[in-house]
Amino acid sequence: MILNILIGLIGLGIVVTVHEFGHFAAAKLTGIEVEAFSLGWGKSIYRHKFKKTEFRLSIFPVGGYCKMKGEEMFQKALNDNEAFIPNEEGSLFAAHPVKRILTYLAGPGFNFIFSILSLSVIWFVGFTTYTFENKVILLSDYQEPGYEKSYPADIAGIETGDLITGINGKSVTSFYDCQNYISRNPEKTIRMTLNRGGRIIETTVTPELDKSTGTGYIGISAWIEPVIGYVQPASAAAVAGLQEGDRILSANGKPIENQMALSAIISKNPKSIEIEYIRGTTRTKTVLIPHISENGSPVIGVSFAGVEIPSPKLNIFQSIGRGTEETFTTLALSIKSIGLFFKGIDVKEAVAGPVKLTYYMGEAASSGFQTGIGEGLTNFFRFMSLISVALGFMNLLPIPVIDGGMIVFNVAELVMGKPPKTRALYRYQMIGSFLILLLLLLAVFSDINFIFG
Q1: How far apart are the first and last CA of the chain?
Q2: H or E element at residue 119
Q3: What does pTM read for this prediction?
Q4: According to the model, what pLDDT value does residue 369 have?
Q5: What is the mean pLDDT of the chain?
Q6: Is the dihedral of CA 423, 429, 435, 440 positive or negative?
Q7: pLDDT at res. 435
Q8: At what angle are helices 354-371 and 373-396 packed, to 10 degrees?
Q9: Which partner from 68, 144, 150, 382 sits 20 to 30 angstroms from 116, CA to CA?
Q10: DSSP per residue over 356-413, as a string?
Q11: DSSP assignment of 130-198, as one string?
Q12: Which pLDDT does position 156 carry in this prediction?
């Protein structure tokens, strides 16, 4: 977990630094003096002044900040009870409102540009998606007695073993395609084309909203063939002699057709399981003694072989197009997610604080590095692009103190044709500070819940 958080901190630091560098670049271009630009927060461990800007390296390597001239003038005007903030040359408040608006916009703008560039490079270099085939299992077929639930897939008439070949007229070739479309369309009816033993079936299904994640689900899982793709060293499977490529045939005498059937037996028999498997042409039996994880679940330490889908070969212009398209798709989903807060989602689960974000970013990179350096870097930059878009979008919300709120305030000044009074700006920022404090408390509570969970 510590390694994941360290990797995540680096990623989060890069994303925040890109945001602050956007403000820095725009301020310089519009004639606003930048007194300090810091990589990291807290006490400075290195300082170097170049022209009018002091560049700092601070002790906490998470993001950074851009300190513009005039911030102390606002505080001084407030303390001296002055009606307006003094317009000292080169200060933020002396600049024309349009220049200030451009400076505030540049932070989120650089986040979007960073995402486009990162994704464009990924598409240009190429990558491999690891997923499973588009054959599905109904979760209702493996429910515990007393916990029966009817899922949207059951209502739609989907059956275990069906191949999902199309969604809303678009071809589906993997379970990743299914997940991607279903998760993005909660509570929206979608058309599905199924292949059931050669017979084509058309149906409609309405994904339910998962209130813990804000995504859609219909109650299906991938049909994963029980062919071992990876055995964790020193795991229960390794001790039992299982190897990559082995196909599990039965567990405790029951035939195993897919990974879900094996998981169901393991969960009911955590102490000892007799496994029959085939390696090449040789059938062998072994006894598997699952290890018990920290949360009390039995684990055997294997992952199953999936499908590798290489990305298409794209030229530089096509790659930029895909990177731009993906960035704005993520932005559209971020905008859409605001509406989910009014649909009863579990905020403490759906909202991610810095600890949860850094952990997930590090986990994505770590899991990729297990496959190879290229996969690790791809996962890392994909997650950073996602966080970068989310950070840019959040900063554009019309909340006082953050960029979006200050843009609104400067637009109002532009319309009225006069600068804001010191007290008016102070009250405006106090409202924003209160809202930000609430969001921070929510994020901290979410992180605490995540850590102890």
Answers
A1: 13
A2: helix 97-125
A3: 0.77
A4: 60
A5: 83
A6: negative
A7: 73
A8: 160
A9: 68
A10: HHHHHHHHHHHHHHHH-HHHHHHHHHHHHHHHHHHHHHHHHSS-TTSHHHHHHHHHHH
A11: EE--SBEEEGGGGPPTT-----HHHHTT--TT-EEEEETTEE--SHHHHHHHHHT-TT--EEEEEEETT
A12: 94
CB neighbour list of residue 406: distance below 8 Å, 6 or more residues apart: 100, 104, 400
Q: How confident is the model at residue 286 (pLDDT cuts 50, 70, 90)?
A: very high
Handedness of CA 405, 407, 409, 412 (dihedral sign): negative
Task: Give the DSSP per-residue string, 299-334.
Answer: E--EEE--EEEEPPP--HHHHHHHHHHHHHHHHHHH
> Length of the chain, please?
453
Q: How far is CA 73 from CA 31, 67, 89, 327, 417, in A?
A: 17, 13, 12, 38, 21
Joined tokens for residue 382: 């994909």
CA-to-CA separations, 423 to 152, 241, 407, in angstroms, rounded: 55, 73, 18
Cα dihedral 340→345→349→351 (10° resolution)? 30
> Across-strand partners of 299?
291
Query: Which residue shows structure tokens 């692009």?
Result: 385
- Bridge partners, 257 (sequence order): none
Amino acid at 329: T
**Block residue for tokens 């405790």:** 252
**Are 305 and 100 within 8 A, CB to CB?**
no
Q: How many CA atoms lie within 13 A of 254 on its CB side?
A: 15
CB proximity list for 133: less than 8 A, separation 6 or greater:
163, 174, 175, 222, 223, 307
Task: Give the DSSP per-residue string, 55-110.
Answer: EEEEEEEEEEEEEETTHHHHHHHHHTT-SS----TTSGGGS-HHHHHHHHHHHHHH
Active site amino acids? 20
β partners of residue 203: 192
Which tokens hold the place of 257? Answer: 């057709």
Closest CA to 314 of 81, 161, 121: 121
Question: Backbone phi, then psi, for 166, in 5-degree steps?
Answer: -160, 145
Q: Which H/E stretch holds residue 336? A: helix 316-340
Looking at the predicted structure, is the pLDDT value of residue 206 above 70?
yes
Token pair of 223 as six digits? 């049909």
* 24-37 average pLDDT score: 91
CB 66 within 8 A of CB 92: no
Nearest C-alpha neighbor of 306 from the set 439, 451, 436, 176: 176
The pLDDT of residue 391 is: 87
